[in-house]
Amino acid sequence: MYSVLNGDPGTSLSLREEVAAAVKGMIYLSESEAPLELMDWGEVMDLAALQQRIGTLHGVQPQAQIVASGDDFLARMLAACDPADIVLKEYAAKYRVLFGTLHRHSNEFRVIQAGHNKVHIYIASFGKEDSLILHTTAIET
Predict the structure, then answer these.
(1) Is pLDDT above 80 for 13?
(2) pLDDT band at 3 (very low <50, low <70, confident <90, very high)
């Protein structure tokens, strides 16, 4: 049982259920404002398997994918946000909590970007027994 995101120590939500509830309505902080989607890829248990899946889906081979730590990706994303924008500040706070939870859950926490104009972004938390993978897109102009 996890309660980091919903703040209720008596919760019976699984981490997956809690993350699914947390990302509902969240958008990626970029021009695309695309939603975050929790993928149901239980068989993808490590970075290599995820990169292979991304290559198959989007035609971007693993060596052409950009891999970053979750912490580095979050820092870059938040640095690009206007600190005077109240809505972005609220999303930034949600992202900090979400990334903190995923980081604590994982043995490996990575963000993979694939594509050029339409960039697919996968936020992956690989635990000992399971993985959580979020997907969104960004438009690069």
Answers:
(1) no
(2) very low
**109 in a structural domain:** yes
Q: Does residue 32 form part of some domain? A: yes
1 within domain boundaries: no
- For the cut 60, the answer to whether the pLDDT of residue 11 exceeds it is no
Q: By residue range, what is the domain housing residue 111?
A: 15-139
Q: What is the CATH number of the domain that holds 135?
A: 3.40.1460.10
Beta strands in the chain (DSSP E): 37-38, 66-69, 108-114, 118-126, 131-139
Residue type, position 71, single letter: D
4 belongs to a structural domain: no
Question: Nearest Cα to 129, choosing from 71, 67, 42, 69?
Answer: 42
Residue whose C-alpha is closest to residue 108's, from 48, 64, 61: 48
Give pTM, 2 decimals. 0.87
